[in-house]
Amino acid sequence: AGVHQGRTLTLLSQLQTSLDVETVVRLFAQECAKHVPYDSYTFSNKVDGVEVGSGTAARHSCHYRLMVADESLGQLTLTRARPFSDGEIVDLEDMLVVLVYPLRNAQLYQRALQSALKDPLTGLYNRAALDASLLREFNLARRNKTALSLLVLDIDNFKTINDTHGHSAGDAVIMALAASIAAHSRNTDILARIGGEEFALLLNATDAAGAQVIATRICAAARAI
Q1: Cα 45 to the chain's mean position, in Å?
Q2: Annotated catalytic residue: which of 51, 88, 197, 198?
């Protein structure tokens, strides 16, 4: 009992050192390997877009859906060449009990961070996220001697839309334009809503001529909405 309690406390203390989901899972996997050897592990949570793992999948596996109060935290799978013994499965499940609350805390923290950086209407980044991205991308561009461009876009006569058709219609226009800009941007671009009807698109590795091409494409798509 004393050995079991000591292992639980050690694992818990390890898991509480981080609020990053991937780090929490890796720390669990490292500690787990000391007691239940495995060839590979994978963890995925499609809701948060998290997928982490290590090793090469083998024939035998233990697969768990991690839950807290009917809330899915993700799925964890361990594999290895030889079967897991009943005793190892008991040990593994005891350790999983310790994992779930630190994992849930990390997920809630990460979601709160993401929410603080997102515009609630469009789901795009907000001004705070853009400011942080600008500094990071500027430093990267200067270090790597690459081009960096910024497009700032707004909706012409937007006040007239609100005054004539109401704010719900204005919101619908903003969401439609946000979706259009996102659809005609590159995966590496950073798109943010920085004001009522204002958007900014940060284009890494893009000079003025390239930015002009992208801006023309976005304006043409906006006219077709």
Answers
A1: 10
A2: 197
- One-letter identity of residue 64: Y
Q: Are 127 and 194 in contact (CB under 8 A)?
A: yes
Over residues 2-13, mean pLDDT: 80
Q: Judge whether 79 and 61 are in contact, CB under 8 Å.
A: yes
User: What is the per-residue pLDDT for 201?
Assistant: 97
Active-site annotation holds for 197: yes
Which one-letter amino acid corresponds to residue 112? A
CA–CA separation, 132 and 46 (whole Å)? 26
Reduce the secondary structure of the chain to three states and give it as a string: CHHHHHHHHHHHHHHCCCCCHHHHHHHHHHHHHCCCCCCEEEEEECCCCEEEEEECCCCEEEEEEEEECCEEEEEEEEEECCCCCHHHHHHHHHHHHHHHHHHHHHHHHHHHHHHHCECCCCCCECHHHHHHHHHHHHHHHHHHCCCEEEEEEECCCHHHHHHHHCHHHHHHHHHHHHHHHHHCCCCCCEEEECCCCEEEEEEECCCHHHHHHHHHHHHHHHHCC
Closest among 25, 17, 78, 16 to 48, alpha carbons compared: 25
The predicted model scores a pTM of: 0.67
Confidence check: pLDDT of 207 > 60: yes
